Amino acid sequence: MATATAVALTASMSAASAQTVVKWLHLETVPENLKLWEDIAADYEAQHPDVDIQLQFLENEAFKAKLPTLLQSDAAPDFFYSWGGGVLRQQAETGALMDLSEAINAEDGAWAKSYKPAALDGLTYDGKTWAVPYRMGTIAFFYNKALFEKAGLQADTITTWEDFLGAVKTLKDAGITPIAGGGGDKWPLHFYWSYLVMRNGGQEVFDRAKNNEGDGFLDPAIIKAGEQLAELGKLEPFQDGYLGATWPQTLGTFADGRAAILLGFEHTEANQRKNAGDGKGLEAANIGRFPFPIVEGGVGKVTDTLGGLNGWAVTKNASPAAIDFLRFFTSPEQERRMAAAGVIIPAAAEAEDALKDDLMRQAADQLAASTWHQNFFDQDLGPSVGRVVNDVAVEILAGQLSSEEGAQMIQDARELD
């Protein structure tokens, strides 16, 4: 009997050691989203008992700070969350990533065809695919309907930048903090500068600056964008202490009703709940949404969108099981499942029909009508220039830099990159 038990234990240990461990590095913090991911991983493991999917978490800022070193170490994950853009390109150039082109285009491109073309194209550089598409998103204004009503504001009347500045003044006059701002993490405030650049100069001006052509970031339209950003800063529109506020704290400020407006992601409604003081936050029915307004005289359109094209970058030594799991995880079936739960606007083709959340549907509709969808500036321009963009946006808002000084700093960084 003892011998039989020993044999069984040995067999069990042998089976366990034969498992392929897939390390999945992420920065997701919403419990409901994590639970769904774990359920999907469990479904895959049930079909592949020789695979163990292990979720590993790093907080947003720690993720960005530690990832470059982690990718060059023996502790590198099999795959990790990516915002694409110049950061992904640089990671690929270091040799840290696996070229997924052959895998994703095998079988007459069946896997590649399962995604929206724009999603796959955005993660492909020089004919090589460096990440598996996961989600698409867009940045927009979210507002507290009750606070707007208290101030006598109608969101649908905010169609120009001047209208927006007027709304900020109206909210202040009503004793309401207009905007929740996250200056501690910096990147949340670069959305304002980015959108103002897009609204003033349009795609042509940004592309010239990105490619270091013409006047670059010293283009008059970009200088004007910085001046408009400074004008917003002079109104002191943010909560007390905003320069030190992290993004979770900023979400909490909005969720607790301590500010009327937040410029944020498509999944803001779910994330504000998690960061609320009472764990509940604003009711979904009390949250409205409107696009970043146009700038009078600018060439950018209200249908030009700023936002994410996110995927999962695979490291060079990842196992075949990791790639197979990603194909399963981002399949139309699973993306539809995540869309139905309000977790993502799917990158998979023909999966948007599962969206049920009204605010997420509005974001999906905005993306569908987008005339130019631009990846986040700090990601698209690469880590070196992106850091300067984030610093400059905060310092212009805080009155510590002029628009011209900020533009010159970004241009200098671009020329050195």
Automatic annotation (TrEMBL):
Swiss-Prot/TrEMBL keywords: Periplasm, Signal
Keyword hit for Nucleus: no
GO cellular component, one term: periplasmic space
Domain of life: Bacteria
Secretion signal, residue range per the UniProt entry: 1-18
Entry's localization field: Periplasm
Pfam families per record: SBP_bac_1
Name the UniProt record assigns to this protein: Putative periplasmic binding ABC transporter protein
Annotated source species: Agrobacterium albertimagni AOL15
